[in-house]
Records
---
Amino acid sequence: MAKYIEMIRIRFLMMLAYRTNYYSGIIIYSINIAAYYFLWSAIYGGKEDIQGLSVIQMTTYIAVAWMARAFYFNNIDREIALEIKEGKVAVELIRPYQYLNMKTMAALGEGIFRLFFFSVPGMFIVSLIFPMEFSANLSTWGFFGISILFSFIINTQINLMTGIITFFLFNNDGLMRAKRVVIDLFSGLILPISFYPGWAQAAMEWFPFQYISYVPSMIFSEGFVGSEVWNAIMMQAIWCLILLIPIQVLWGLAKKQMVIQGG
Amino acid sequence: MRHLSIFLQYVGQYMKTRLTYRSDMVVELLSDLLFQAVNLIFILVVFGHTDLLSGWSRDEIIFIYGFFLVPFAFFSTFFNIWDFNERYIVKGELDRILTRPIHSLFQVILERMELESMFGVITGLAIMFYAGSNLGLTIEWYDPILFILFVIGGALVYAGIFISLATVSFWSDSRTAIMPMMYNIGNFGRYPVDIYNQVIRYVLTWILPFAFVGVYPAAFFLNKTEWYGYAFLTPFMGMLFFTLSIFLWNVGVTKYRGAGS
């Protein structure tokens, strides 16, 4: 256990060493959220609400979605793919730890860093400029906290899977790019799921993507209330468990048929 | 001439590597299509809830998006340098580039090109023709010429911005993640800039002039006379920003100290 916690710490410190680019990151994210704010204001026109979300709730939704993304987003799929291509993974496999767990911990270290040095200050700056609604309700914050932790786990599990697939495809850039696009669209990052036509919403029920961004953002902007919150968090937990299965299967297969291409 | 033959040789090599990883190439083409579909879906879903976006109709917004895809395809084919910092500076790959007698930026571009991104031109044109025929637009004899000029201008604007961002690495050799994040900002140039407030409109016009890759030039083909001035500026903005970025690059390279092993 200690070695995994050490990994979180090391990655955190690594990020700290390169912190200057996070200041520019906060500015870029702020421009991004600002542009979305005006785009959505134009889309709302004079309307009071669309699909039960007011303009202010929508702004809060967008801002939280992007700031939460800073926490759950990571590039471990690219790291794994590179280590496979360069052959470094062979060395990693004989080291006395679980390779996938180690990658997850590294991602967590990165996420914690971004949460404190990026999302929190970024959110503060954005809330000064744009009208947003922060809940005074402590339980909303608590549920949001639990929910983004699950978002992190689900997103990381999907990243691990795309990373492992490099063992079979050898070159995996296309799949990783497709994955990023799919997650941006179907996770509710750029559009709340409730805005989609009914059949599309029904189809998305079958995928874990909306549990990455839509659920925490809806909880935070209080678009979900009462039992909806509990149900959403339960579904997140269930998806975390379901996704363990394909990871284990893929990882088992991958170790058997490893081809090292270089290094 | 020499540059052309080098370019062709790189294209040949590129084909070989692509064919080695055939399944990846197919997935990559599909992911490009998916990427283009995502933005279209955004427009379609949004217009399921509203009729006009400050006076612009759904088909007009779709037309702008179709136009945007064409310069963007040229940009992503030849200026795919979003991981320049990590690949060339942090890993020290630039050392290898600098020992060769061809301009360093030209080599980086050749090494990172992604020819399959050119499919964006086809999807872009298809979307433009679809939206254009819905709007009843007609094609004049000078339209294709201006279209080519605007596309070149737009692609150079994009290239100029991203090359300038890449040159930041020469001065600070630490890792930066600015470029991937910047991709999102590029999308906002596709929407009518009059919806944004003054500051953002100014940024999208003069500082990160992404509006010249989308709404401004496309407004010309949509016969929006009030934007003609901006539309005709497109090729000049492209040349200006591209020249500026080459200048920054040439100065930057002299500041480069090998960082990698």
---
Amino acid sequence: MIITTSKPFEEVLKQLEGEDKVFIIGCGLCSTTCETGGEEQVAEMKTKLEAEGKTVTGTIVYDEVCHELNTKRKFRENKEAVESADGFLVMTCGAGCQSVRESTEKGVHPANNTVFLGNILRQGNFTEKCSLCGDCVLEDFGAICPVTRCHKGILNGPCGGTDEGKCETDKEKDCGWTLIYNQLEKMGKLDRFQRIYGLKNWQASMKPGRVIFEKKGEGGE
Amino acid sequence: MEKHVKPGIKEIMESGTFLVSGEIGPPKGTDIDEMIEHIDLLKDKVHAMNITDNQSSVMRYPSLGTALIILEHGGEPNLQVTCRDRNRLAIEADLLFAYTRGVRSVLCLTGDSVPVGDHKEAKAVFDCESVQLLQLIRNMEEGKDSGGNELKGGVEFYKGAIVTPEAHPIEPQMLKFAKKIEAGAQWFQTQAVYDMDNFKRFMEKARKIDDKVKICAGLVLLTSMGAIKYMNANVPGVFVPDNLVQEMADAPKGEALNTGIRIMARQIRQCIDEKLCDGVHIMAIGKEGVVPQILDEAGVDISKM
């Protein structure tokens, strides 16, 4: 899931300077779970903006704001409210916000900061375990990712800064390499730890990423 | 190419001489007068001087520039290279330059993390890390850069690395120590050791892994009780044992530094007399001026070694 946090309301207000009529968009998936853009937060934002003298022409929360065709369809369905707005406040991740950009020439403003691809530990408690590096090494490290869970992303064992299984950057954070060592030891696979990993291909997923699947049946009879 | 006034670290180590090295911490700014004083003071007292590379992720005068200054002043530099601030292209280019100017010894480090330093919002690089850096240099020595391209004129460095005897748990560190040797490390400096019994146990483990690789004990000068408390609480992999804490606490007012000097002199002597390791690396952390006094008290004169 994409983890987002809310920008301070003052920053949101500043973004909307000169745009008095605002349409608010939330997402039914990730930002609903993060409580940064679900029905409740969108309603709350509407109230706060109205208290600041803004007119909210409409609000909408739907699944996959990042789906650009879907977003265009939602714009058509809400034609009147959309057309009367000066700008759009998007309470989703950065992908959702840019999906909205493809549907309008008016102001598009992010209400959230997009933080990472996260695992849900429990409601409201998220942690990053994958950095989307494009060249998965989980098989070699007992399904614990050193690229993400070691602060330095190193591939050949812990740095000297690790202490009692914690990271030098934060005593509350586990040292990824201690986790990997313990896991490989449990599995009887410390030989994987002993292997030297050469320089990583950091361009395996080159920005901006792009994947196009061939349609099944295309080019056939 | 700069002319070497002194034998390099490799020659000293391979001749079986007990290596005594010091450390130069470059300043934060262009006023390098004090650093040059330290270089002049140490160049005949130690075999070589490490130059820290933006140590603790605090931006400073560059290690490579300082290595050249040490050579100009007739000293022997040990160039520290961290992977935090440069990608593989920049590291390789720096190494080519260092080699052409006479640098012959490189200490390979991953580097501290950015948020512990004074540029907390900087983008960290870590394109490679210590083990891969050792491999990268070995490839360069074989005439290839890390892109697999031929070099016109190669390099040959004495490749050093770091190991942390006080790390908990120690097992992953020992596995990494072995990997560093496999990747090309010819010698090691340890992170700070104070507990000499623990250091002995570490050396036994290390010798079991490889009985030929050279290992120098890293000794950090104790200067005050405040510094000890700070290190024990905040510096991972550094532990000052109770007996030394007590010895420092018992020092009369104004005598803390002298007590620290006495402790380090004793540790150096012990390393030599008991043949614990192949050398010592003295880290005086801003008190470089007292290194000659430490060596006097330890009865160490490199011209007679």
